[in-house]
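The passage that follows is intended for readers who have already worked through the single-chain material. We present the inputs for a multi-component assembly, then the predicted structure in tokenized form, and finally a short commentary. You are encouraged to pause after the input and sketch how you expect the pieces to fit together before reading on.
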Amino acid sequence: MSKINIAIDGYSSCGKSTLAKRLAQSLSYVFIDTGAMYRAVTLFALQNGYFNNKLSVDSLIFDLNKVNISFQYNAERQASDVILNGVNVENEIRTMEVSNHVSEIAEVKEVRKKLVALQQEMGRQKGVVMDGRDIGTVVFPKAELKIFMTADDEVRAMRRFDELRQEGDSISLAEVRENLKKRDHIDTHRKEDPLRQAEDAIVLDNSNLNQEQQFELALRWANERM
Ligand code: DC
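Having made your guess, compare it with the prediction:
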């Protein structure tokens, strides 16, 4: 069987990473969470004071060569942690503060150019499952399998809310709803590589599907393409 690349795109909190990780494990492929890379650049910008009232885009672009992003496998999580300039920032990039600023960072053309090039390099030998917003349209337009994930807004908000609560965050459901709505809007309306469904992508609406059902479907699609 030949190795393929699998692109998974879709709205925030649709369960893209959960599905991508499971698929990668079962196929012995590499799972790459590209949202984590945009989050790492956001953390860098926050740590270095580029967000005052608004993002200082010019300073960020000027300093982009100081941003070094890599991944390191974490056996406990069975997935890779993000490393920013030598420091493991897997936990820091998941905070609400980063979530609230990440869409602004993802709008910057130079940031996208840098991260897309890195992602393409990671998939050069095939055998990756990559999730994000522009994987099937920009990063791997020739990916053998493209999945576009979607789910009902309220289902997504509840899932994310439960996740954050379990991590000990005292956030309200209204705040989660607001963050998702804002991110979806920016992600689909931005000028640079907006989130859109590739013409040859298969839509996976998981509002009424459990993780097992989604996995079975995606695995079947993958096997059909190998
Ligand atoms: O998948 P996530 O929610 O962790 O992604 C965080 C943000 O990064 C999301 O709001 C949009 C952006 N993103 C992007 O623009 N392109 C990608 N390939 C992945 C994420």
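Commentary: The beta strands are 6-10, 30-33, 69-74, 79-84, 87-88, 128-132, 145-150, 202-205. The first strand starts at residue 6 and ends at 10. How closely did your sketch match?
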